[in-house]
Amino acid sequence: MEPGLSNAPHLGIWLVALGFITRRQLTLALDAQRQAGTAIDEVLVQQRFLLQDELDGALKLQEDLAGVTALQDLDVPRGVLELLPRTMAMREQVLPLRRIGQRLIVGHIQGMRQDLTQRLFDSVAQATDLMVHGLAFNQETLEKALAFYYEVRATSGLVTKAVAIAANSSGRTAVKEATDVTALPVGEGDAPVIELVNRILAQAVQKGASDLHIRPTPKGVSVKLRMDGVMQPLMELPKELEGSVISRIKIMADLNIAERRRPQDGRCSIQVDGKPIDLRVACISSHWGEMMVLRILRSMNVPNGFTSLGFRSQERDRWERAVKAPNGLILVTGPTGSGKTSTLYATLNQFDKTEKNLLTVEDPVEYPVSGIGQIQIAAKVGLTFAAALRSILRLDPDVILVGEIRDHETLEIAMEAALTGHLVLSTLHTNDAVSAISRMAEMGAPRHQIAATVVAVLAQRLVRKNCPHCVKSVTPSLEEREFLGIGDDDVTLQRGVGCDLCDGIGYKGRMGVYEILEVDAELADAITNGASTLDMWRMARKAGMGTLLEDGKAKVLEGHTTALEIQRVIGLREKGGAL
Q: Which residue, 101, 385, 392, 396, shows the most beta carbons closer than 10 Å to its own?
C-alpha cells in the first residue's frame, strides 16, 4: 500500500490488511451485517472479532494515511519509534507506525516473500513484546521515512532554524567555521546552516563513511553515506536547504558558489573529534539541481604486512615472491575503491628504506610515510604522472610507485623504467588479473615489451567482514550450499546479526579478495605471440592461479564474510578473461 490513497479501502478489507481480523471473520461479519442491518464496525465489535479501542485506532490510522502524500509526513509518536531500536529498524528496513493496544503496526518493504515477512514480524514481536501487523510500502518510500524519523527528526529544531535562515539569506556564510566540526558554532546569521553541515560531516566521519553524497530530489535533498562500499541513507533535508547546504560546502572547499552549471572540484580540511580529515569535493549540475560528493580521506597508518589485508597464506607467498624481483612491472587492478593503494603501500612497507631509494608519484598522496619520497601530482602546472615519472628516473630510484597508469605516455615510461633496472609498482582499472595484459596492449604497448616487463598482476576486491561483536554460527541455506559447493555435512557458516557497534548491519570493516597472475616463461611466450585473453586465463589456471571467486568462497568457509557478500561484490560465476 502507499500513503495518500485517493479512495480509502472498505473497512473490512483494511482490517484484514492490517491483520486485525481474518478473511473468514470478515465473511462471518458481513453475513451477520446483512441479517441485522447494522454497520459492519458494530458487528465486528459485537462478534468480539476485535475491541472497540482497536477499531478506533485502525480507523484513525486509515484516516491519517489517506491524508498524507509522503510517509514521513505521518505523525509517528516518539514513544512508538522508541519501541524498536534504531539499529534494528535500519537493518531490517521496518518502521513502527502506530501502537494500538497490544498491537504494533509497522511499515515494511513491498514484495517480500511471505516467509521472510513472517520472520520479520516474529523478530519485531520478540523485541517489543507486542503482536505485530504490517503495511507494505515501496522501498524508496520506506527508506526516506526511516532516514527522516531516525536521523532528521533528532535535529528537527536545527533544520527548522536552518530553513528560516535559508529563506532570508543569499547562502553566503558570514560565520567562520569551527576548527573542529564537532565543536559546533554558536552565533547569529548563518550559524544554523553551518551547524547543520558540521553535524552531517561529523556523522559521516564518525560512522566510518568513505563518501558523503548530497543529491537533490524533486521534493528535498537526499543525504547518503557510502559505508564499507555500500550506500546507506543518512537523512532527508527540506528543499529549501538545498542552496544553503551546497553553498556552505563550496565555501569550505574554496569553490565558486555562483557557478552552478559547470562541474567543480575542490578540497578542504576539517577536524572531527580532534582528528584531521581531508575532504575532496566534487559537484555537478543535475536535473533536480546541483549534486555533490565528498570523498573522506583519513590519515591512516600504513598497512603492516599482507595478512592484515586479507591475504591467505598461498596468495601471500605468491605475492611476496613476485615483489622480490629485482626489476620489472608489478600491477594491482580493480575498480575504484577496491583497496589498491593499501595493497601497494603494504608492499612498499616490505622494502628496507635504509638500503633502497623508494619514490612515489600519486594523486593525491594518501599515506604520508617517512623514509619514502612522495610526489603529489599538480596537473595545473604540468606535473602529470608522465612528467613526474620522467623526472624521478633521474633521482636514482630503486623502487617506483606510480599511483595509476592512465594513458599511453605513462605506460611507456613505466615500462622503460622496468626495462632499465627499476621495480615499478602501479595500478590499472581492469576486472581481473589476465585482462590487464590485454588492456596494456590496447593502450599501445608492444606485446614483446609487456612479456619482458610484467612480473605479476594482482586483481582484488573489498568485501565486508562479519562484525566480530555479533557474529553467530548459522546453518547454510540450500542456495549457500550450492554456491559454496558443500554437501550435506554438518557445516556451519558465520554471520553477523547486527548490533549497536556495527549500526545494525552485521558487517564491520572490509578485507581483500585476491587473484594473482605470475608471468612465467610459457605465459610470456604466449603474450608475445598474441594469445587471447581466454587462452592466457586458461594457461594461468593450469599454472595454479586461483580466482577471485575461489578466494571469496574460501573466506566464507573460514567465517570471515558471507556468501551473499561475495555474490554482491564478485558474482556467481567465474569471470576470468572472456568467461
A: 385
